[in-house]
Amino acid sequence: MKKRTYKFSNSSTDYYLAYGISHLKELVDQRNSVIITDENVFGYHEKRFKNWNVIVIMPGEEYKIQSTVDAVIEELVAVQADRKTTLIGVGGGVVTDITGYAASIYMRGINFGFVPTTLLSMVDASIGGKNGIDVGVYKNLVGTVRQPSFILHDLIFLNSLPQAEWVNGFAEIIKHACIKDAAMFRDLEAGSLKKYQGRKISVCKLIQRNAILKTKVVQQDEFEKGGRRLLNFGHTLGHALENQYELSHGQAISIGMAYASVISEKITGFKEADRVARLLLKYNLPTFTQFDKQKVFDVLKMDKKRERKVINYVLLEKIGRGVVEAIPLDRLEKIFQDL
Ligand code: GLY
Fold this sequence. Notes:
Blueprint: E1 4-7, E2 12-16, H1 24-27, E3 33-38, H2 39-45, E4 53-57, H3 66-78, E5 86-91, H4 93-105, E6 111-116, H5 119-125, E7 130-135, E8 138-145, E9 150-152, H6 163-180, H7 182-190, H8 193-198, H9 200-220, H10 235-242, H11 249-267, H12 273-282, H13 293-300, E10 306-307, E11 310-318, E12 321-328, H14 329-338
Parallel strand pairs: 2-9, 3-4, 3-5, 5-6, 6-9
Antiparallel strand pairs: 1-2, 7-8, 10-11, 11-12
Helix pairs in contact: 3-4, 5-6, 5-9, 6-7, 6-11, 10-11, 10-13, 11-12
């Protein structure tokens, strides 16, 4: 696939989908670039990093914190990175967030690009320009919105992807289908994890469809004043659960989507919460579970989608059509208690 350029409000990003990391040196000046990756990706793919400056961070959401950014900045200083340096995040969502955030603040902003290596980061985390870190249990509380100059996909990285990471990626794919793409929802119902994993062409097409779907949503509302909020389907409850219960992002938002579908039945008249839950289960994702509602609600109140006493909750009107409902916190609390 050729390069495609997508414009955002004050920048643009070149997409090289289904490309190959060996082409990276044609996109940047190798001597003045620094790759940030994690121990897992580096361990499996060390030979692909030959002749690059590399910073290796610890893998996992628990390292998406300020101290990791501080360590990266110290290493950038040590290699005398300057305003012409390009940072390249090669990894999953933690690596791309840390890279985008560090690049946004180092010397008040240097160029960066992403090579997402997980399904979830290919279809979601590397796209959209939000780059940030967690603070305690609060996910992505601190960060920036700044678009990468390029995104390059190399599906070779999926060969080393653990099963749990495939499942994680499908949570975001199902989210896209729920809010925007009823036809993809039906394709996913007809398919299965095993089928996609066994067919490179289907997974490649699915990745591109999702990457482009998200990109178009972001293009229309980069700073999340309206339509971009739909991408938060499942994330309000999901984020509140994720760090408190040490769930993966996919598991957390899957539970969030299952409950948001039930809440939709109460508020928008949505009629297919069972169908959403069935699809999530089909892709080995969790749906309804026990959790301490008060404790989770207390974290949820700090969500970035809250505006004073109202929270913008993403619900479904039908499969393929998400809506944002401004729900007063006290009403939401009551809905939660009754779930
Ligand atoms: N980096 C993920 C997003 O902007 O949505």
